[in-house]
Automatic annotation (TrEMBL):
Record-linked Pfam families: EryCIII-like_C, Glyco_transf_28
InterPro entries with a match to the protein in the record: EryCIII-like_C, Glycosyltransferase_28, GlycoTrans_28_N, UDP_glucos_trans
UniProt domain Erythromycin biosynthesis protein CIII-like C-terminal: residue ranges: 286-399
CDD domains: GT1_Gtf-like
Protein name: UDP-glucose:sterol glucosyltransferase
Keywords associated with the record: Transferase
GO biological process: one example: carbohydrate metabolic process
PANTHER family: STEROL 3-BETA-GLUCOSYLTRANSFERASE (PTHR48050), STEROL 3-BETA-GLUCOSYLTRANSFERASE UGT80A2 (PTHR48050:SF13)
Highest taxon of source: Bacteria
MF terms (GO), sorted A to Z: hexosyltransferase activity; UDP-glycosyltransferase activity
Amino acid sequence: MRILITAAGSHGDVAPYTGLGVRLAEAGHQVALATHRSHAELVGRCGLEFRPLPGDPQAGGEPVRGKGAMLRRAKQFVGELGRGIAEVAEPGADVLLLSTSTAPLGWHVAEATGTASAGVYLQPVEPTGEFGPVVGGARSLGRWGNRMAGRAALGVVDRLHRDAVAELRARLGLPPLSGSAMRRRLAREQWPVLHGFSSALVRRPADWRPGLEVVGNWWPAGQGELPDEVEEFLAAGPAPVFIGFGSMGSGQGERLSRLSAEALRAAGRRGVVQAGWAGLSVDSADVLTVGRLDHAALFPRMAAVVHHAGAGTAAAALRAGVPSVPVPVTADQPFWARRLTAVGAAVAPVPFAELTAERLAAAIRSAVDGPSLRHSAAAAAARMAKEDGAGRVAELLAALPRQAAA
């Protein structure tokens, strides 16, 4: 079976799909992963076919300030994505697997080509009474309020994609159709969406429609050993604290480097600081600055993990069974930060905008010195180890062609 996975965004938005793709390839399928050119090496290392999607999630380098400017950049990004997503599907596929970020465009490609499709989401975006919308960081508003807020959040997504969808449908020869109308159609058809996160972190809401499932994480492929420099540093003293903000903090590298060094010193801990998009760099005998490393190999060796609470990093920290210090910045990060705290595996989130060396040092001390956090994280890790998210996707694929032909 020819499978095309589409994913857009930063490294954390794309890397899980390499693990999913490799697993499907091992099952005998021909798998291609369509994403940005900046991820071509990541995809190629896994032995998957790479297909380029337009747009660069790191374009510009500097942070965008102001709601209007952010909206304009987001619309530009979506517009570029819409103009390219039909092209990557042209070589043909039996199944389209659509990520959270590509589904609002991919639905229309699947309709035009008659290709079977399914969602493979990293976030629980379907409205529910059990929690508020994932993006926006809203706290629970009660069952009715949560559902209403969730629908409003999807409305924002549909408005953001409106122009790109109209252009795409015209290009594909399809009649006009709004995003909300497409969502209603998919709900009636019980379009399948498999969510690649653990029920140890978010259980499947009881009020979700049939076809929406939580299956467990898809872990990035190509995980390997740590570099000798890292192994030597780990062996030279007690377990350090990891600090990394992934794709967040662009333009604040100097401030975050200084803050991280001061916090580690005040907490009396060694540290491993990841450069990330912000370009953190700490020069100290007790702190090692690293580039991109395999979280699965590194995190179990840490005393605690300070991170931005992106979906993939939050899951990797929990999988490692170590306490987290979540420092959420934007989008779905406040949601995952609160989930880690709710399951007892993290200290209370420290919002990025409120981060100081003093607050970070106090949070690190609480995480390292609190045995209950490590116990809860270890219990969650044991539960995650029993899940087979990629295997569940493989099972779904066996039924999809029959559904398309019915």
